[in-house]
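Fold this sequence, please.
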Amino acid sequence: MSTPKVAPAPASAPDAPFDVERIRADFPILRQQVHGKPLVYLDSANTAQKPQAVIDAESRVYREIYANVHRGVYDLSMKAEKAFEGARHTVQRFLNAPEAREIVFLRGTTEAINLVAHTFGRQRVKPGDEILISGLEHHSNIVPWQLLCEQTGGVLKVAPITDEGEIRLDELERLLSPRTRLVSVGHVSNALGTVNPVRRIVEMAHAQGVPVLVDGAQGVPHLPVDVQALGCDFYAFSGHKAFGPSGIGALWGRASLLEAMPPFHGGGDMILSVTFEKTTYNVIPYKFEAGTPNIAGTIALGAALEYLAGIGMDRIAAYEHELLAYAHDALREVPGLRFIGTAREKAGVVSFVLEGVHPHDMGTVLDYEGVAIRTGHHCAQPVMERFRVPATARASLALYNTRGEVDALVAGLHKVREMFA
């Protein structure tokens, strides 16, 4: 059986012990039982649970300061606007973005990628021009580019991946051409957990004058993210995977690129003036934020990122690294289990199949043991096709998971084997 190799723990992680039980106490949903068993939630790559601080932040908006933003001069509206724009500054700090005006609030990673495809992409891509992605991508980083290519006559190029689940950098570099208009890659694979060498990819693309978008949906919850250090041109992430609410996320983009891009949606707040003859658009980021935004969700997203920053992303990454290594070792002892994705550097995801058992059957049996995992293609069907499997079982780890929960998963898999032997 091939065994995943886990990268060394981050050198910057402090020596102080990581108190996972104290962190678990912040997540009220984890206290419940499922089918008479303690809930073991191992599906955070799908969507993460919410700490009390986030629940309180969203609730407080509706209890104390709810009003529309950017539209009122009365006290309640100005309080809501101050908290809303405060969240924008929180995202800026969390990503180490140069300016708060480069942060655009959207529904999530999917909408952020679609925004870039429909604005930046339509401006740049002409018949025969190319968009370059990798074979590891989530559907949200495939379909928008296919739509763009269908509408413009562009061509979608795909850098292949290895048997370990790593991008073939030599092939990616070979596929870069004078016709490449954008490279779009994930920071971390949702299906396999592979941490991509984003900085190296950016260097390769920039050497040929090609901008890079990073799908950070799985990066933000698990790794320190510094967009200036990465060197990318766009970075997108979703709040619900980062312990915040659903229906909110953000796109960071270089100001010079955002200013040159046309609006994505038309309506209120994205304008400076409107007549029947002509509309003058607002400045960034408001040019891309048409209509009443998700006010409470945005403020709660800020609370989620402040919660993570308070713990320290280096400490979170170090703890999850140790837990991931423990999970790999424990699962290796399950007869008939085969890992899908054995990259040298991984974050928070163990994807596997069990001989003779469909992943959906695994998931059903595990549920009765209180263990929640995801089974299926994980919105990454090309990855499943690459590994010649219809689906995998995926256990995804987060800062609130424990070794005991990994042991519960392993015990549940032994029961699965007994049932299907």
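The chain is about 40% helix and 15% strand. Residues 54-310 form a domain with the Aspartate Aminotransferase; domain 2 fold (CATH 3.40.640.10).
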